[in-house]
Automatic annotation (TrEMBL):
Lineage, broadest ranks: Bacteria, Bacillati, Actinomycetota, Actinomycetes, Micromonosporales
Species this chain originates from: Micromonospora profundi
Domain STAS: residue ranges: 25-137
Molecular function terms, GO-annotated: anti-sigma factor antagonist activity
PANTHER family noted in UniProt: ANTI-SIGMA FACTOR ANTAGONIST TM_1081-RELATED-RELATED
Domain of life of the organism encoding this protein: Bacteria
CDD domains, per the entry: STAS_anti-anti-sigma_factors
Protein name stated in the entry: STAS domain-containing protein
Recorded coiled-coil stretches: none
Length: 159
């Protein structure tokens, strides 16, 4: 099974062919007792930032003292990503837990610094250690982005 979605694209001769397109963002949840690790790969923008918040809302339904968000492979981070991190931090704190941002990519660190929100979040800049084994249920969310968007247009969340 592939994480890519074939979408028809017109060729110069007017015919359509299917090409594989990578997902915009992939979320992976790993749990080890009361500790959770969410790994984010790809882009966090207005089309998918809510998926992080929704996943954390589900996690907060049970005691979760520590949630680590691995942002080392994030290659785009927009304003909606900042909002999602602040909301996520508030949700976890309200549930009596703590959020740690593990090894945020340069894109994430730059935006958090410019927006002056890094001081409100816990950042772990050390290289990521091996996390707990994955033991979740997979759900695929696929959508087409607006035509103006020139890059990948599907998302996948693994929770």
């Amino acid at each position: 099974m592939t994480d890519q979605v074939p979408l028809p694209r017109p060729e110069a001769n007017g015919r359509h062919s299917a090409h594989l397109i990578d997902p915009i963002m992939v979320l992976t949840l790993s749990r080890d007792g009361s500790t959770s690790l969410i790994r984010v790969v790809g882009e966090i923008d207005m089309s998918n930032a809510h998926l992080i918040t929704e996943l954390v809302e589900l996690l907060c339904a049970t005691p979760t003292p520590l949630v680590t968000l691995d942002l080392s492979e994030v290659r785009f981070f927009g304003a909606h990503g900042v909002s999602a991190l602040l909301r996520t931090n508030a949700l976890i704190a309200a549930a009596g837990g703590r959020l740690v941002l593990r090894e945020p990519s340069p894109f994430v660190r730059r935006i958090l610094s410019v927006c002056r929100v890094a001081r409100h979040l816990t950042l772990d800049l050390s290289p990521a250690s091996v996390g707990p084994a994955v033991n979740g249920v997979a759900a695929r969310l696929t959508h087409r982005a607006p035509a103006a968007r020139a890059h990948a247009s599907s998302t996948e969340a693994t929770t």
